């Protein structure tokens, strides 16, 4: 079954994701660990940029400022994109949501893998940095695909009126996927109109329950 174009509505619900997630759940972990490391380095660059802010004029003259002062928006390489890049990255993201739980007290996702390095913020920053190395279309499509998933899970949560044996808890998955997308867009400074077009405002309330 197809998931449809990036901007389409998820008419088939959550079921099309199941076979893909079974395939990529473990095989993509090295990718995610790499994103987390990239994100940690980006956060370190942000800290360095704050320290260097007083020396901005000197660094500008020396041509050394670029990536340090705006690491999230910097382009570090120029490569042709792999096939189906944005779709693949959305599936990788969805496959990793099971590693997190939403903590309402800390208002963040916390990683359940105690020995891992998959902290929430570095991972989404690393993923965003990776996508930014390619044509902007792929970033837009990734957000649209994630918006598709959030809406598909929301539909599943609504129709799940009777207790069933499920591989995921729709209510928990809805919170995690919504929070992931909101914070990804925040860190990557995604325009509000794009964000609003992918995530209905009514879904924001799920993070308050």
From TrEMBL:
GO terms for biological process: actin filament polymerization; endosome fission; endosome organization; regulation of actin nucleation. This is WASH complex subunit strumpellin. InterPro entries: WASH_strumpellin. It comes from Anthurium amnicola. It comes from the Eukaryota. Coiled coil: none annotated. One of its GO terms (cellular component) is endosome. It holds the Pfam family Strumpellin. Belongs to the strumpellin family.
